[in-house]
Amino acid sequence: MCRFIAYLGKPVMADELLIKPKNSLLSQSYHALESEMTVNGDGFGLGWYDKSIREEPGLFRSIRPAWNDENLIYNAAMIKSSCIFGHIRAATNGSVSIPNCHPFHYDRYLMMQNGGIKDFVKIKRAITNRLHDETFAWINGQTDTQYIFALFMTIVLEYEKQRPLPLADIKICFSRTFAEIEKMKEAAGLTSPSLYNMVLSDGRRMVATRYSTNPKEDTRSLHIARISEFYIGPKGHLRFKNDQEADNSVLIASEVLSKETGFWQEVPENSCVMVDADCNVTIEPMA
What residue numbers bound the domain in which 187 lies? Predict the structure, then answer.
């Protein structure tokens, strides 16, 4: 059910994250290690920011499997950014098409997900009815993720009419989004767990959630690493350098990219990770 990686920190080449590590996102597209579904071959997406050009992110998405796309391998070696998102898809809701490939962007925000809503079609109308005209018009695909993101952005825009959103309020918007969906599910008689491993960024900050409405029944893995810098060692092993006073880069990933101990931390169940513009990390429980 999809895999992703998100990076915020000192500018790095995209292939250093997505292609070169032994357990890279490319490798996970055909042999994921921390998922029951080991193959994620229904497309991929790469998102990144270059604030010297524009506030909105760049996007490169394809329906080809990541392991079989020369354009991904070539272009990832040409993209350098301080904020990079990578996603590989195992389709559940929606056809295999570019509009259904993560990540998605709305204005300056970039978002991707690993998870979803079982029987989403039974509450699709309810979510649609809750959206503002502009967030409804933004949807151009079929995935539950786009509808979740559109609902989230509806709530964000209601907040932003009052003031620019600090990270704590973005967390509240995620909580409200999940709570409103649960009310819609309850009204439709749906009881199966919904899974929201999501990452959002505006290119300067980053927020991630690891959330299941019933983590004892179903959940998804999520990990974080706080580092000063990293490099690719022999045989593709990712090596980290750590200076606690200079830790200014953050990795959030569905799966660890290396087995090096002391760097990767499992994000607790039903928690929110907030990374500010200086890459200070706060992890808090979500209601």
Answer: 3-285
> What is the H or E stretch that residue 159 is in?
helix 144-160
Residue 187: exposure state from Cβ atoms within 10 A (0-12, 13-18, ≥19): exposed
pLDDT at 94: 60
Taking the C-alpha atoms of residue 240 and residue 217, their distance in angstroms, rounded to an integer, is 34
Told to judge if 279 belongs to the known catalytic residues of this protein, a careful annotator would answer no
What are the backbone dihedrals phi and psi of residue 210, each rounded to the nearest 5 degrees, phi first?
-115, 105
| Residue carrying structure tokens 């008689």 | 189
- What's the mean pLDDT when you consider all of the chain? 87
Catalytic residue among 2, 101, 272, 279: 2
The domain tally of the chain equals: 1
For residue 270, how many other CB atoms are within 10 A of its CB? 17
Model's pTM, two decimal places?
0.91
CA 110 to each of CA 2, 115, 193, 203, 258: distance values in angstroms, whole numbers, following the listed order: 17, 17, 25, 8, 25
Give CA separation, 166 vs 171, 173, 276, in Å: 9, 11, 9
Q: Which residues, in sequence order, are bridge partners of residue 232? A: 238
